[in-house]
C-alpha cells in the first residue's frame, strides 16, 4: 500500500484507520482526483473473513485497474470527477496472516476469549445491526461467534467509526467475500414476506425495467430503495456474466442464502448509505475458499465489470448528466431522502 501511494502520489493517499487485536496498523487507500469540489465516496473492503483469499486479491486488482486506466478509460475518468474511492484491502489483518501461516481455513479475527482458551470473533457478525439476533453463536469456539457485544472488536470499531463519520458522503458500500457467486443486498436479519409494490426504474445506460421488491424494510421508502438496489445488482451480474459466462445469483441474503445479523452490509444500509452490497466471488463450491491461482485473474476481471457497473450507475444517478428516470412516486420518495 505504501508503494502504491508513493508511485501514484498524484491520486493516492494512505490513511490510518486503527489497530487490530494483535496491534497491527490498519490502513485504507483513498483514490481521489485533486479537484476543487466536494465529492462523494464509494467504500470497498476486502478480507473481513481470513480464509477468503480471492477477496484481498480483488481489492488489489481494483486499485491497479483504476490507476492504470483512469486517464484512458472515459468511464473511470468520469466517475473520478465526482467520486472518491476508499479501499480497505484487508480488513481482518490478523486472521489473514494466521490463515497464511497456521490455518488456511481460519475465518475470524484473533481476539482471545475465555482466558485464551478460544480465539476469534466473526467480524461480519459484529456490526451494530440486529446484533446477535439470528445466524450467530454466543460460543467463542464457533466460526460465527458474534463477539461480546456490537463493535466489541477493534477492527469492526475502526471501520464503523470512519463510516459513521463519513456516512453523509458515502453513496455505496461494497464488501467483497467468497464463495458462492452471489451479489447480496440487505437484509440478512429478516425473512418477512416481500412487498408487492412494483416500480418502473431505469436510466439512459440500462434501459427501463419493471422491478418487484425482493426484500423487505420498515416502510414504503425502504421497499423502493431495496428495489433500486436489486435492479442495479442485476445489471452488475449481467455485466459480470458477459466476460466468461460466470453466473451470479442476486437477492437479499435472508431470501437466497441464509439469515444472519450484525453484517457490515446491513449496518451500512441501516445508517443511511443508499447502495450496499456483499459480493461472494467464485466459485460455487468445487474449490470453495481454496480457489486455484489460475482463477485469480479471470475472477478479478469479471468482478471488475460488475463493480464498475454499480459505480457507474451511482455516478450517473447522483451527478448531472446521468439523471435516473423514475416513476413520480419514487422520484418524490428519493427526493425527500436526498
From TrEMBL:
<keyword id="KW-0336">GPI-anchor</keyword>
<keyword id="KW-0121">Carboxypeptidase</keyword>
<keyword id="KW-0732">Signal</keyword>
<keyword id="KW-0449">Lipoprotein</keyword>
<keyword id="KW-0325">Glycoprotein</keyword>
<dbReference type="InterPro" id="IPR057246">
    <property type="entry name" value="CARBOXYPEPT_ZN_1"/>
</dbReference>
<keyword id="KW-0472">Membrane</keyword>
<keyword id="KW-0378">Hydrolase</keyword>
<dbReference type="GO" id="GO:0006508">
    <property type="term" value="P:proteolysis"/>
</dbReference>
<dbReference type="GO" id="GO:0005615">
    <property type="term" value="C:extracellular space"/>
</dbReference>
<feature type="domain" description="Peptidase M14">
    <location>
        <begin position="1"/>
        <end position="314"/>
    </location>
</feature>
<comment type="similarity">
    <text>Belongs to the peptidase M14 family.</text>
</comment>
<comment type="function">
    <text>Carboxypeptidase which preferentially cleaves C-terminal acidic residues from peptides and proteins. Can also cleave C-terminal hydrophobic amino acids, with a preference for small residues over large residues.</text>
</comment>
<keyword id="KW-0645">Protease</keyword>
<keyword id="KW-0482">Metalloprotease</keyword>
<dbReference type="Pfam" id="PF00246">
    <property type="entry name" value="Peptidase_M14"/>
</dbReference>
<dbReference type="GO" id="GO:0004181">
    <property type="term" value="F:metallocarboxypeptidase activity"/>
</dbReference>
<dbReference type="GO" id="GO:0098552">
    <property type="term" value="C:side of membrane"/>
</dbReference>
<dbReference type="InterPro" id="IPR000834">
    <property type="entry name" value="Peptidase_M14"/>
</dbReference>
<keyword id="KW-0479">Metal-binding</keyword>
<keyword id="KW-1003">Cell membrane</keyword>
<keyword id="KW-0862">Zinc</keyword>
<dbReference type="GO" id="GO:0016324">
    <property type="term" value="C:apical plasma membrane"/>
</dbReference>
<protein>
    <recommendedName>
        <fullName>Carboxypeptidase O</fullName>
    </recommendedName>
</protein>
<dbReference type="GO" id="GO:0008270">
    <property type="term" value="F:zinc ion binding"/>
</dbReference>
<feature type="active site" description="Proton donor/acceptor">
    <location>
        <position position="280"/>
    </location>
</feature>
